[in-house]
């Protein structure tokens, strides 16, 4: 067991866990922030996407030892009242069907827009590649991102 201190959604946090425990389980089980979802456990689907020091990462593949003294942002920290422009666009464009992948999709899109406020459609598609939506709402995801950009 190791003690790891970091910031999550702007608040300090300290957890005791094995250093190789995935950040996903720290977020969901230790901190009870359940907006971040378990999808594949192999970093291939994007459902568990969070930001680590402002960059999108797969929390199922990021060990808690890697987040010491860093800033983690989950979907809950993106906007506590769902007022982030992407969250509003997701509702306006009726993006979700089952909704399971949506927090990861939004976090991936927020990373794109934080680094490129006016991406082309091709840049959006390339950046979002790897975030899987089983319901196939990709055209609406792209449209929502474009509406914010």
Your description of this structure?
By secondary structure, the chain is α+β, with helices and mostly antiparallel strands. The chain contains six helices and five strands, in the order ββαβββααααα. The protein has a five-stranded mixed β-sheet with strand order 2-1-5-3-4, with helices on both faces. Strand 3 (49-52) and strand 4 (55-58) form a beta hairpin. It is globular.
Gyration radius from CA atoms, angstroms: 15 Å
Largest sheet: 5 strands, mixed
Continuous helix count: 6
Look at the helices and sheets and give the structural class.
Answer: alpha+beta
Mean pLDDT: 96
Strand order in the largest sheet: 2-1-5-3-4
| Share of residues in strands | 15-25%
User: Can you tell me the overall shape?
Assistant: globular
Number of strands: 5
Q: What portion of residues is helical?
A: 25-40%
Cα end-to-end separation: 44 Å
| Unreliable segments of 5+ consecutive residues | none
Sketch the topology as an H/E string, one letter per element.
EEHEEEHHHHH
In summary, what is this structure?
With 149 residues, this protein is α+β, with helices and mostly antiparallel strands. Helices cover 36% and strands 17% of the residues. It has helices at residues 23-30, 75-78, 85-92, 102-115, 121-128, 138-148; strands at residues 2-8, 11-17, 49-52, 55-58, 71-73.
